[in-house]
Amino acid sequence: MKLSRIVDDCLARMAAGESIEECLARYPQKAAELAPLLTTAARLRGLADVRLSQGQRLRAKVALREALAERSQPATPLVRRWPRLLPVVSALVAVLFVVVVGGAITVSRAGDIAYPLRVTIERAPALVRFSSAGRAAEEASIAGRRLADVREYLLREGTVQPVALAELLARDRAALHWANQLGAEARLSILATVMGHAEELASLASVAADDEAQASLQAAAEQLRAMLARFIPAPAQESTPQPRPASPTPSATAAPPNTAAAVAPTRTPVPTRTAARAEAPPLPAASRPTYTPTLCPTLDVGPAVTPSILLTDTDAVASPAEIGSPSKPTAAPVVAPTSPPTNEPTALPPPSAPPPTPTFGPKLTLAATDLPPEEQPATVVAPPTAPRTIAAPTVYATPDAPATPTPRATVTPPDVAGVSSSGLATPPPTS
Amino acid sequence: MSLLPECQRGDAAAVEALYDLYADRLYRYIYARISDPETAADLTTELFVRMIRHVARFRINHRRPAASFSAWLYRIAANLVNDHHRQARRAPETSLTDELRLVGPDANPHRQVEQRELFRRLGQAIETLSEEQRLVILAKFGEGMSNAEVASWLGKSEGAIKSLQHRALQALSRFLRMEGGDLAGVEVDRGTLQ
Question: Which of A6, A176, B136, B141 has the fewest CB atoms within 10 Å, measured from its CB?
């Protein structure tokens, strides 16, 4: 017989009134195993008398009635569940808000309400760039995006989006600021980017139908160019053996170096005329163009031309918009010094005539070799130099700059160059 | 189980009838597991309050309506006891009332302490059982149910109930022996259990 059955039989007998000893006597061969089990069972019998007292029952029933009354109270399920649902609902609302607002900001275009937020948020990556190179590159990249926004808005609406344009200028300014701490190569890259922005703004201005938009774009392009001009350092520190300009003042009066050859030529601007120049309408005599230096990052100057200074014949009183207008003369006479310039200027421009602000008007990277044979200078005495860099010599030429009486070794056909011997530009021929 | 639909509708009389039917056995179950009569009584009340709150969602097993309902109540009781044990582990405390209960103004305080010690150790032993073994022991020794009734309640055969009972008694016996206390001399005084 299985022990479990014996135990059950004994428990039944004990329940009927038998003692443990009587049960063990019935199964003497199992007594040793049965004894502890039956003893434990006897102790468990006491559980049958464990009951709630009458007072405990009454208290419990009062509590149950209260629970029933609470349950039967009419209450809308939402109101009853609201305290529990509140965190969940709040979290859902927050997530929904973030998704909707984030989406709206992400897809916002120039002119949208969320566009300023997008502009602000997109600046964030630049703030976490801790190297000057990274920061400059990021700022230039952001500026490129703003330029794309300006372009897109101009094509879409026909006007300029002021937020995008202002941000473009700000980011380019920041890019130049950070680029100032970089090496020459990295700096040139940033400069080229910003220059590209300026040129694209100018080209956008040319296609803008709206006058106001055209003016704004042109002014922005001029601002960028002005920033570039301020940013570009003096070229003397460049490693190229290019002759260093004597001073930022018009060098038409630069004295020849004493150590030069017997000819001792001065660095005389030799403006040339281009076809575009020839096609341009003549300027009135009262607004004779002055030459302002052109900083040209492009390096495609003819190999035969050595330190050539690109000058643009922008009108001194012309507005930036006019300067950038494609209808204006685009000639950029090339001033080719025929002898190494000196560092010491022999004459400065009159103090009453401040040097004109460097502008980046339509420039021509003409070189002597680009001219027709008949228009090329007869003799150009200039040492061969390395290709030009962006830090080209800066030369200011003003109408008031007197010509130096120094001998010249350069023979410049005045009628071709359109520039007088004093360095002043003359109106192009009307023919 | 005709009380159940009325209880689900919120009928107070049906709720009280169910309370009278199940309160003592659930109290025993809780008391066997926590060895504190006052706390066991409070938890029993809480158990029926939870029943009132959730009985409307209870879906009865029509093949074994009473068994399924009492099994549901025991599940609630087991959850309450587990919660109580968790809280006790977090903040173990012996209240002044516990001490007073142990040495209360009883005619025979020594005897009362012995009885409470017996049930405390039995409770500890019962806690070592599986839930099925625990229910069999409580049904057989607490409720006085027959093997057939327990088998019907738990949905098992009578042989399975006998086997569960045997294994439960062996486990309890081993636990009490391991505890070292020989309770053979302690007689269960039923009158001091309340």
Answer: A6
Greatest mean pLDDT among A48-52, A337-341, A365-369, B92-96 lies in: A48-52
More confident residue, A243 or A186: A186
Residue owning tokens 């575009």: A276
Please state, for a pLDDT cut of 70, what percent of chain A lies above it: 51
Main-chain phi, psi angles of A335, to 5 degrees:
-95, 115
The amino acid at residue B41 is A
What's the complex ipTM? Answer: 0.76
* β-sheet with A309-312: strand ranges across: A292-293, A309-312, A334-335
Mean pLDDT, chain A, as a whole number?
66
CB contact under 8 A, A43 and B138: no
Task: Count CB pairs under 8 A between chains A and B.
Answer: 120
> Using one digit for the tens of pLDDT, what is the confidence trace for A379-426?
444 444 444 444 444 444 444 444 444 444 444 444 434 333 343 433
pLDDT of the residue at A381: 41
Cβ–Cβ contact A46 with B under 8 A: yes
Calculate how close chain B gets to A58, using CA atoms only, in Å: 10
Note whether A47 contacts B141, CB cutoff 8 Å: yes
Tell me the Ramachandran region of residue A418: left when phi exceeds 0, alpha when psi lies from -120 to 50, beta otherwise. Answer: left
What is the secondary structure of A330-361 as a DSSP string?
A: ----EE--SSPPPSS-S----TTSPPPPP---
The candidate with the shortest Cα–Cα distance to A51, out of B115, B80, B23, is B23
Express each pLDDT in A136-172 by its tens digit. Answer: 889 999 999 999 998 888 888 888 888 889 999 999 9
List, in order of start, the domains of chain B with CATH numbers. Answer: 1-91 (1.10.1740.10), 108-180 (1.10.10.10)
Q: How far apart (Å, rounded) are the C-alpha atoms in residues A344 and A237? A: 16
Facing residue for A64 by CB, picked from B48, B140, B188: B48
Buried b (16+ CB within 10 A) or exposed e, B145-178: bebeebbbbbebeeebbbbbbbbbbbbbbebbee
Q: Is A262 on the interface with B (CB under 8 A)?
A: no
**Burial letters A353-377, b for 16+ CB under 10 A, else e:** eebbebbbbbbbbbbbebbeeebbb
CA separation, residue A305 to residues A170, A229, A258 (Å): 37, 23, 23
CA distance A90 to chain B (A): 27
